[in-house]
Amino acid sequence: MNGLMKPSLAELIGTFTLTFIGAGAGALAGADGGGIVGVALAHGFALTIIVYTWGPVSGAHVNPAVTLGALIAGKVDATKAITYWVAQLAGAAIAAYLLKYVLEGIADGLGETTGVLTDNGQFGKVIVVEAVLTFFLVAAVFGSALTARNGNAYGLAIGFVLIGDILCGGYLTGASMNTVGEHMHTAR
Question: What is the pTM of this model?
Answer without folding.
Answer: 0.84
